Amino acid sequence: MTLANSGLLIVDKPQGVTSHDIVAAVRGALHMKRVGHAGTLDPMATGALIVGFGNATRLLNVIVEHDKTYEATIRLGQRTATDDADGETIAVHPVPAMSCDELRAVIDARFTGTIEQVPNTYSAIKVNGRRAYDLARDGQDVQLEARPVTIHEFAVLDVRPVRVAAMADGRPGDAPEDVGSGDGSLPMLDVDVRVTCSAGTYIRALARDLGESLGVGGHLTRLRRIRVGRYRVDDPRAVTAHVEQRTFTNRDGETVTRNRAVLDVAGADLAAHALSMIEAAAAAMTVIEVSDVEAADLRFGRRIRVAEGTPRGGWLAAVVPERNDLIAIVEPCGHGMAKPVTVFPVA
């Protein structure tokens, strides 16, 4: 089996590299420049990163808008600048014992359904053409506006008391100790959760806001994305990767060591893990079969008539299955017709 020049990969991103590092690893494995991903994962996060190559990169704008499911651990009692474990601690507060039911009551009342959420300052949102995290690192005061997001599920799976050891200056250390040990340590809670949410939701911000609503602060210590739409990290074809360190001399003559992502499969073995264009489209949207004449019409930008009962909302993938040919992404436009939005070249 050979690797087609267009398709989709579900990559299980490891901790310690960026989403761009994964894209770079796929580019290297495929010897192809046209590679992109659908939805950034922070370096601390692991899990499903959807990577398209070739013509499948044109599917990514559809996939990125899909609902997502995460598993995470929130530490209540400790705030950080980035709302996750990679940031500097900026406030601590001892946390009284709380049950799962008590936490669920707060979450159900304030953090389910459609809510307003202010993204973290250290996010990739652009402000006047620059990333918010770049502005924050330059010491600028970044004010991001609240935006509506939808939380379909915010389940509390487990609650564990921990104690965080205080450092010499009174700030907490990084490693939790056994409860009851360590003089001067602070009682906190680690909360395991599962969140299913709309695109654009920041789980870091949920951790921060849950902590604020309880008056103790909070941040993420673990984040794993297990699903993007119909693409799941436990799919048998998901590609795993690992982290290796690379040391080099930069233009200033300094020796620099950085992490890089390395795929655990490459070459011909990668072919068995790639979703074809039609498979990728079928997981992203409703598929409609079209004739050769209709395929030609779509590729010339013409509208086609769709069968009665075809969904009236959302995108549709028009395919000629006997040729394994994805023709176009189309949009219903009324009166039983659909118009092409994105047209793909002949397979």
Reading the helices and strands in chain order gives: EHEEHEEEHEEEHEEEHEEEEHEHEEEE
SS elements, strand count: 21
CATH homologous superfamily of the largest domain, by name?
Pseudouridine synthase
| Cα separation of the termini | 17 Å
Uncertain runs: 167-181
Structural class by SSE content:
alpha+beta
CATH architecture label name of the largest domain: 2-Layer Sandwich
CATH hierarchy, class of the largest domain? Alpha Beta
Share in helix: 10-25%
- What is the number of domains? 3
Number of helices: 7
Radius of gyration of CA atoms, rounded to a whole number: 23 Å
General shape: globular
Main β-sheet, in a few words?
12 strands, mixed
Strand content: 35-45%
CATH fold-level label of the largest domain: Pseudouridine synthase
- Summed over residues and divided by their number, the pLDDT gives a mean of 88
